[in-house]
Amino acid sequence: MSRPLLDPATLSAIKDLSLVARTVIDGFMAGLNRSQVKGTGLEFSQYRSYQPGDDLRWLDWKMYARSDRYYIRESEMETSISVRILIDASNSMNHRDGPLAKMDYARYLAAALAYLAYMQGDAIGLYIFQDGQLFSLPSRKDPQHLSRIFYQLENIQAAGKFTEPLQYKQLFTGERRKELLIFITDMYQQQGEISGLLSSLAALQHELIVFHLIGKNELDLDFAGYTTLQDLETGKTVSINSAEMKKAYTEKLQQYLAATRMQLLEQQIFYRLISTDQPLDKALRDFLNQRQKSLT
């Protein structure tokens, strides 16, 4: 029987972010038994639900302790890395599509990824780009640290412009061991500041993944009842009340998205565009399927 997908607007009614993360990952794990997904960093062995008669030696007791459910680990791949989650919390992340802001989707996605990395035994760090500053929780792998990350994610308030380069020092002082950097952003930039940061991070030769969040109303230019839009960070307004404008917007948007994707791929940065109306467990499965194909 198929499992209902986890609509992000529905999840927004759950105030406990750790519960959101467990709910999303439980749905995600339910889909892993249909397709084995592996990849460097956030490496997943194949799981399936325990069935009577299964060899008890292959029960994943850590998974049971965390989810209160029995899973069989069908293959094993040793991995222990530092996963650093970077979140753009500048004011443009307050953009809404219906009841859900990009910032909300970012916090749910980050919480799910942090919980998943924790279950694998990876160290997790959190870095928040907000109002010109950089908040950081260096990578650790203990339950208390995961709780701290959930707390910070719950309390993020998108504000101001993107972080000033002067604050980046903490990003370049990580350990020398292998790291995975996951950057969640809407890629809104005024002077190439995000592209510059990504180039600098790519030079560290760690693995870098970018989740580019975009509202469905941005993709479709569907702002019913409005004739002008205001930039959340600059305050500038633009008219959207003509068919010609919508056609030009759509063409430029597609060119921009294609150029962004190519620019990042040329720097060996894994890129994934996500519309904020997409269910989170589906977004994770699609991401890992795409990632697996790119690694084979």
TrEMBL record:
Domain of life from the UniProt record: Bacteria
Cite the Gene3D superfamilies for this sequence.
Answer: von Willebrand factor, type A domain
Q: Which residues form the DUF58 domain?
A: 46-252
* Pfam families noted in UniProt: DUF58
**Under which name does UniProt file this protein?**
DUF58 domain-containing protein
Question: Lineage, please?
Answer: Bacteria, Pseudomonadati, Bacteroidota, Chitinophagia, Chitinophagales
